[in-house]
Every structure is written in C-alpha cells, then in structure tokens.
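Exam revision sheet. Question 4 asks you to relate a sequence to its structure. Input first:
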Amino acid sequence: MGFNGIRPNATRKEVLEMIAVIMRDDNDLEFKLDSMNLSLSISVVTEIFWVLNWERLSALRFFAWIRSSKCRRFDFEGAKKMLDEMRQMGCDPIVDTDNYLLSSLCRSDKTDESCQLLEEMQERNCLPNPLTFEILIYHLCRLGKFDLVHEFLDRMISNGLEPRLTTDAAFIKGYFNSLRYEEAHKYVVDSSV
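Answer key, structure tokens:
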C-alpha cells in the first residue's frame, strides 16, 4: 500500500477494470471507484477519458469522482495540475469544477490560493458565477476579513452578478459572529434599498 492506503501506479488490468466499472454506470459507481484504492497518473486519467470519449460515454461522474478524491486528500496541486492538463487537451472544465476546488481550498483555510484561483479563472475567461463569489465571501466572513469581503462583493456587482440570499446571510452571520451588530444592521438596510 502507498500513501493513505492508496496503491500507486495502477496496472493495465486495473485501468481496464476501472473503465469497465465506469461503463456500467452503476448507482454506486463512486463507491466502487473508491474501493479500488488506485492512484491514477494524469496519463492514465487521460487514457480513461479518451476511451470513454471513443465509446461516446459520459465521463461526468468519473470526472467528478477524480476531482472530489483529489480534494478529499487535500491534493490541491494534483487537482489543479489535472485540470490544467485537461485544458491543454481541449477539455475545459466548467465553472462548477473551479467552484468545487475553490470551496475545498477555503475549507482548508488556503485563502491566498483561493484568491489566486479566482484570478486564474478570470484570466481563462471562465467567468465566476454568484456561487463563486459566495464561496469566497462566506469563507472570508468566517475569518472576519471584511475588507476583502467588501472587495469581492464590489467585484461581484461590477461583473453584473447579484448576490444570492445565502450570500447576504453569510454577511450578516459574519458580522454577528464578530460582534459587529451595527455593521450587520447597516448591511441589511443598504441591501434593501
């Protein structure tokens, strides 16, 4: 066994078995993939995507599993590297993929990396959606970094995005948790105008 119980370097037979499991598309696909305990190199992941594409089968659940398994192991560099490799192969992940990585970074208190990911998204023309900003705003409110929170709110609004109700709730909760009741009240009053 390798790191965290994951066997390194999947064999050819294991890769073919994994492809067969994915092609069956069972309800418990993710559980079956997890139970295989394999570490997949980017070249193996690419090969699996190629086979699924050749067979004209959806790779969405496999992709979601790869993404979540990397983030569950806190292998953010590995997840980012995999996404970059996919982009080079012409498979651009959608904003939801970046949001998942962003959320995982925030839960691990990697604020600088989260902000950097947002910048990279915009450079790639992967336009953030209201949830993207909410993830950052919620995280920064939890940390009490209201100067950055307001900066992201301003960027969100300047991008023509309207804050979700849960974004407003994150602001209010953040202010209350920081015992900043007057600012919470001001935010509510300003938001209702």
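Marking note for examiners. Confidence is low (pLDDT under 50) at residues 1-8.
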